[in-house]
Amino acid sequence: MRFQDFAQTCGQLEKTSGRLDMIAIISQVLPGLTDEELPVFVRFVMGRIFADWSSRKLGIGPNLLYEAVGYVAGVKKEQVIDKINATGDVGTAVEELLELKSQTTFFHEDLELVQVYNELIAIADTEGKKSQREKGLLVRRLLANALPIEGRYLARIMLEELRIGVGEGSVREAVAKAFGVDSSLVEHAQQALNDMGEVARLAKTGAAALEDVKITLFHPVRMMLAQAGSIAGMIEEHGEIAAEFKYDGSRFQFHKKGNWARLYSRRLEDVTAALPDVIGQLMGATDHDVILDGEVIAIKDGRPMPFQSVLRRFRRRHDVAEAQEKIEMVPNVFDILYLDGETLIDLPFSERRKKLESVMKMSIAPQTVSSSQEIIEKTYNDALAAGHEGIMIKVPSSPYTPGQRGKNWIKIKPEVDTLDLAVIGAEWGEGKRAHVFGSFLVACQNQGKLLPLSRVATGFSDEQLAEVYDLLKDTVERKAGKEVTFEPTLVFEVGYAELQASVNYEAGFALRFPRFIRIRDDKDIADIETIESIRARYQRQVNTAQAYEKN
Ligand code: ATP
């Protein structure tokens, strides 16, 4: 497939709004692709470059791209930025700028889809001191060969903002339709392989290949997540349930083969180097090849510490903090997904737990299995008394469903209303806080677009403000008087007393008594609160108020 044909397909998809129409367009393209093209097409059309399990990163920021576009089009970087601001979209801007170039070049060699992918791999794999310069040269070369329409989608893919409205669900349906396989099989294979590209390649060979998929060691799978719910509701629905402490730490997935091991974070980043202690403990904990799921917590004087702050402190001055404060990193293992070549995610949780118990030499997360509300409530109270967040209730008969926030894991914790919001701007502080940011503008999202929702100025200690300043200072985009705006990278958890309808912020709501709770660096900007969920919360609040008035 030529890259221009891929770009044309993107153009067609961008103009299509109906999901079924999109699925039809994609499913018509898939059967005509070679084995090599199929995975690339599937990832690209979802705006991804590499497999989801892969920690490979392109490493191209907006600046580098704008510079390369400017070079190829024969204009200054500032003009590229002006064009983007004028058109409101980097793709359109690049397309228009490359039209300038195409008026002066006569020779064009067709770019192939797979060739573009290989060039992107080369860009990603450029490392070392001069890597930014080398990446820049490779991007220039790629753009110099691109037609304007190709530039439009290439630029968006490189910045990870393709935004043609094609989600994983649509691609799943399109793969199923194209190759005549059941979409639940495609979904299951995607959960195990964590790469829709590879899944599509298997689907092409038929249903049997999809049924046979196995988890691969060192290809992390997405984490299973939890919903809110109640103890009584779970007992009513399932009878016997399993309750574990809900640890306030950092999620991990541990992969081990022989004496080689890696640790992945909730975002599936390889964090092996950051937690040598934990790796050591887990390595010694079993003689088998395994994938384990768990939560690492920081313990000081026998009590759990707020974990994110510990981790950041560790990163800054590792041994000093450890020696001075005697903080212990404790992994709590609660699930097993793979054992000696066997994929376990389809086994019931109670079976997985048995396997886990049989292969581990270290103690694993304690569990209370019962159908008595009283007993589970006692576990909940014990959890809070011991300084944990609450409990997790798990259905003993349930499979492990990677990436899903289903009804088989339910979290029970004390009610506090908080929102995870992106930090998009700030104002400098005053007095002794004049050298750091003092108040922050935070935003929710509407389909990827950020909508300002509130200012947050309370709840910070001086130490936290210094830390936040450190994390934000290199992401400043614009400065105007006391105000700055940021390239959104950081997520705050913000507590509030009430949601109010408001015209002061673009989101249409404002927070009463917003208060900083903590930094959520286990969350991406894509994971922040959506405007729909805020509307739903607002509606619940209105309903509760009305019910209260009636009584
Ligand atoms: P949210 O994602 O809604 O902000 P959260 O970060 O607590 O909340 P949830 O999906 O609600 O995520 O809860 C699951 C998380 O709880 C896991 O990702 C894990 O980090 C943590 N956790 C702590 N203890 C356990 C446990 N025993 N079993 C499973 N997850 C646990």
TrEMBL record:
<keyword id="KW-0131">Cell cycle</keyword>
<keyword id="KW-0234">DNA repair</keyword>
<dbReference type="GO" id="GO:0005524">
    <property type="term" value="F:ATP binding"/>
</dbReference>
<dbReference type="InterPro" id="IPR016059">
    <property type="entry name" value="DNA_ligase_ATP-dep_CS"/>
</dbReference>
<dbReference type="GO" id="GO:0006281">
    <property type="term" value="P:DNA repair"/>
</dbReference>
<feature type="binding site">
    <location>
        <position position="266"/>
    </location>
    <ligand>
        <name>ATP</name>
    </ligand>
</feature>
<dbReference type="GO" id="GO:0071897">
    <property type="term" value="P:DNA biosynthetic process"/>
</dbReference>
<dbReference type="GO" id="GO:0003910">
    <property type="term" value="F:DNA ligase (ATP) activity"/>
</dbReference>
<keyword id="KW-0460">Magnesium</keyword>
<keyword id="KW-0227">DNA damage</keyword>
<dbReference type="InterPro" id="IPR036599">
    <property type="entry name" value="DNA_ligase_N_sf"/>
</dbReference>
<dbReference type="InterPro" id="IPR012340">
    <property type="entry name" value="NA-bd_OB-fold"/>
</dbReference>
<dbReference type="InterPro" id="IPR012308">
    <property type="entry name" value="DNA_ligase_ATP-dep_N"/>
</dbReference>
<feature type="binding site">
    <location>
        <position position="334"/>
    </location>
    <ligand>
        <name>ATP</name>
    </ligand>
</feature>
<feature type="domain" description="ATP-dependent DNA ligase family profile">
    <location>
        <begin position="322"/>
        <end position="446"/>
    </location>
</feature>
<dbReference type="GO" id="GO:0006273">
    <property type="term" value="P:lagging strand elongation"/>
</dbReference>
<feature type="binding site">
    <location>
        <position position="295"/>
    </location>
    <ligand>
        <name>ATP</name>
    </ligand>
</feature>
<dbReference type="GO" id="GO:0046872">
    <property type="term" value="F:metal ion binding"/>
</dbReference>
<keyword id="KW-0233">DNA recombination</keyword>
<feature type="binding site">
    <location>
        <position position="411"/>
    </location>
    <ligand>
        <name>ATP</name>
    </ligand>
</feature>
<dbReference type="GO" id="GO:0051301">
    <property type="term" value="P:cell division"/>
</dbReference>
<feature type="active site" description="N6-AMP-lysine intermediate">
    <location>
        <position position="246"/>
    </location>
</feature>
<keyword id="KW-0235">DNA replication</keyword>
<dbReference type="Pfam" id="PF04675">
    <property type="entry name" value="DNA_ligase_A_N"/>
</dbReference>
<protein>
    <recommendedName>
        <fullName>DNA ligase</fullName>
        <ecNumber>6.5.1.1</ecNumber>
    </recommendedName>
</protein>
<keyword id="KW-0132">Cell division</keyword>
<dbReference type="InterPro" id="IPR022865">
    <property type="entry name" value="DNA_ligae_ATP-dep_bac/arc"/>
</dbReference>
<dbReference type="GO" id="GO:0006310">
    <property type="term" value="P:DNA recombination"/>
</dbReference>
<dbReference type="Pfam" id="PF04679">
    <property type="entry name" value="DNA_ligase_A_C"/>
</dbReference>
<dbReference type="GO" id="GO:0003677">
    <property type="term" value="F:DNA binding"/>
</dbReference>
<dbReference type="Pfam" id="PF01068">
    <property type="entry name" value="DNA_ligase_A_M"/>
</dbReference>
<feature type="binding site">
    <location>
        <position position="405"/>
    </location>
    <ligand>
        <name>ATP</name>
    </ligand>
</feature>
<dbReference type="InterPro" id="IPR012310">
    <property type="entry name" value="DNA_ligase_ATP-dep_cent"/>
</dbReference>
<keyword id="KW-0436">Ligase</keyword>
<dbReference type="InterPro" id="IPR012309">
    <property type="entry name" value="DNA_ligase_ATP-dep_C"/>
</dbReference>
<dbReference type="InterPro" id="IPR050191">
    <property type="entry name" value="ATP-dep_DNA_ligase"/>
</dbReference>
<keyword id="KW-0547">Nucleotide-binding</keyword>
<dbReference type="InterPro" id="IPR000977">
    <property type="entry name" value="DNA_ligase_ATP-dep"/>
</dbReference>
<feature type="binding site">
    <location>
        <position position="251"/>
    </location>
    <ligand>
        <name>ATP</name>
    </ligand>
</feature>
<comment type="function">
    <text>DNA ligase that seals nicks in double-stranded DNA during DNA replication, DNA recombination and DNA repair.</text>
</comment>
<feature type="binding site">
    <location>
        <position position="244"/>
    </location>
    <ligand>
        <name>ATP</name>
    </ligand>
</feature>
<keyword id="KW-0479">Metal-binding</keyword>
